[in-house]
Design goal:
The protein is an all-alpha fold and 324 residues long. The protein is 79% helix and 0% strand.
């Protein structure tokens, strides 16, 4: 009887989790559309076609970036917060231990799956990387908005690109200040506006920033220092920064629902252990309940994945894809 009740309760949790997943997916579908992945370009496909084995499969599916220590560390460097080798190893070790304990406790009847606990190590490291990326994007959007707004005002005042850049550099924050100083240096070498800001455009991958620098190039070529277009692009960047802050607030409230679901799922066996150790052992060794927990785990993981992707969503990328 107790086992039957537990199965019913766990199935209810799974249904609840499905509802949470559906809600998040629905919210995400309204905010974003599917875009072509960079790795699906013809060159990448042709280069990866001949790759064989597990490594080849991971590279073709662009999954290698989640498990390669080198790629994870290099990715963190892009966001000005490098994950050291020591930190990588410590987080990976901690996550792996948690993974082993999790499998042993919730999938005891499939204890031969213990080696899969290493997945917990990769999850722990990638969660750290995601946090670094999230914080970086939030900060740089605001700083880029300030830079663009200041430049839009300065260009109409000085009617000279170098003069405008010199006037705004002291008020900029890092890392934007260093990037603009580098662009200023390239301009001083006699190179064009496009070359000067190319590295900055690639670093931040912002459509508004690329359009802004393209407009600066047009202004320099034509000599027309009307800053209306520049100001509109600066406002768009500021609006995007505000949108991300609002999205972060919404993310917190939805996250509470996810954490409630995950906590209830993980703590479900505890009451049976308190009431009766025999019932707990029956739950502990039940293959059926392990399979139910697998469904719950997959549901929770998918919900978390969708939730975190939505938090760093960039609406301008979808707009550009639609316009294209």
């Amino acid at each position: 009887m107790n086992n039957t009740l537990l199965i019913v309760l766990l199935m209810l949790i799974a249904v609840f989790g499905y509802g949470v997943t559906t809600m998040i997916i629905k919210a995400g579908s309204k905010a974003r559309k599917n875009r072509l992945n960079v790795f699906l370009s013809a060159d990448v496909l042709s280069n990866n076609t001949n790759l064989k084995g597990i490594k080849g499969y991971l590279e073709r599916k662009n999954l290698i970036r989640f498990i390669s220590r080198k790629m994870i560390i290099e990715e963190s460097e892009k966001y000005d917060s490098k994950i050291s080798v020591t930190e990588f190893i410590s987080r990976f070790t901690f996550g792996t231990v948690i993974g082993f304990v999790f499998i042993y406790f919730y999938f005891h009847s499939f204890v031969y799956l213990m080696p899969l606990g290493v997945i917990g190590g990769f999850v722990a490291v990638n969660m750290k990387l995601h946090k670094i990326k999230k914080n970086y994007i939030e900060l740089t959007d605001s700083k880029l908005g300030i830079y663009m707004s200041s430049m839009a005002t300065a260009i109409s005042t000085f009617e000279n690109l170098k003069g405008a850049l010199q006037s705004v550099i002291p008020s900029l924050e890092q890392p934007i200040r260093a990037d603009v100083e580098e662009a200023m240096q390239i301009l001083g070498e006699g190179k064009g506006v496009r070359n000067a800001f190319q590295k900055m455009n690639e670093k931040y991958d912002s459509n508004e920033l690329k359009q802004f620098h393209h407009q600066l190039e047009i202004i320099v070529k034509t000599g027309n220092f009307d800053n209306e277009t520049l100001r509109n692009l600066a406002f768009k960047m500021m609006d995007k920064a505000t949108y991300r802050r609002d999205l972060k607030s919404a993310h917190r409230s939805v996250s509470k629902t996810w954490y409630l679901f995950a906590s209830l799922s993980l703590l479900m066996p505890v009451p049976f252990m308190v009431v009766s150790f025999e019932n707990f052992m029956a739950v502990f060794d039940s293959k059926i309940l392990s399979l139910v927990y697998l469904v719950v785990l997959i549901t929770a993981a998918l919900s978390y994945w969708k939730l975190e992707k939505l938090e760093i969503y960039d609406p301008s990328k979808d707009n550009s894809a639609t316009n294209a």
